[in-house]
Design brief:
alpha+beta; five-stranded mixed β-sheet; Immunoglobulin-like; five-stranded antiparallel β-sheet; 17 strands; 2 helices
């Protein structure tokens, strides 16, 4: 009786192990690198085709993903968002660490192929703390310009500060990051 149970267990384990080896050889993980950053578990190679996580890839590319459950369809929107930073009437991108400056963000948005209900702009310091610069409800499609009011901000740490531009799709509460601009705070 013991040998019979042991034989059945050995047979089950052999079949399971063989199935796992076959499954691993049929679908292999693929490293996906976007702009020098590797995505976590992003790709699988199966039958000579590479499959990628749309949501993870779109997030890395700062795109908007829309899933239509009824049509079983994924749509990816990538609006062009060009941001310029102005201190008075001068464009800037670098600051001296410790300076407190007033600036505004100007954004040109085009190729917007979906309806949005709001935009917001924030700044993230090198430590990861995010501060809202301004948000606004909008009802536009295709292209528009957006300018924030002046914000006074202290660049207390050396490093990279990110200006983040978000959009909210009509009918959702989720903010989607669609563009990023970097300000470098340097020591003198």
């Amino acid at each position: 009786m013991k040998y019979r149970k042991l034989l059945i267990l050995l047979l089950v384990m052999s079949l399971w192990g063989g199935t796992m080896i076959f499954a691993d050889s049929a679908a292999q993980k693929v490293r996906v690198i976007v702009n020098g950053s590797e995505l976590d578990d992003a790709g699988i190679l199966s039958d000579g085709k590479t499959y990628l996580s749309v949501r993870q890839l779109a997030s890395t590319l700062q795109s908007i993903v829309f899933w239509d459950e009824n049509a079983k369809k994924v749509t990816v929107y990538k609006p062009n968002v060009h941001m310029f930073l102005f201190q008075d009437n001068t464009i800037f991108g670098n600051v001296v660490k410790g300076n407190r400056i007033s600036f505004k963000v100007f954004a040109q948005i085009d190729n917007l192929m979906t309806d949005i209900s709001a935009v917001k702009v924030s700044i993230m310091n090198p430590g990861g703390a995010e501060t809202l610069i301004q948000s606004k409800n909008v009802s536009v499609k295709d292209y528009f310009w957006y300018r924030t009011d002046d914000i006074t901000y202290s660049f207390d740490s050396a490093g990279k500060y990110s200006i983040l531009f978000y959009m909210k799709l009509t009918g959702t509460d989720d903010w989607k990051l669609v563009s990023e601009k970097t300000i470098t705070a340097k020591t003198q």
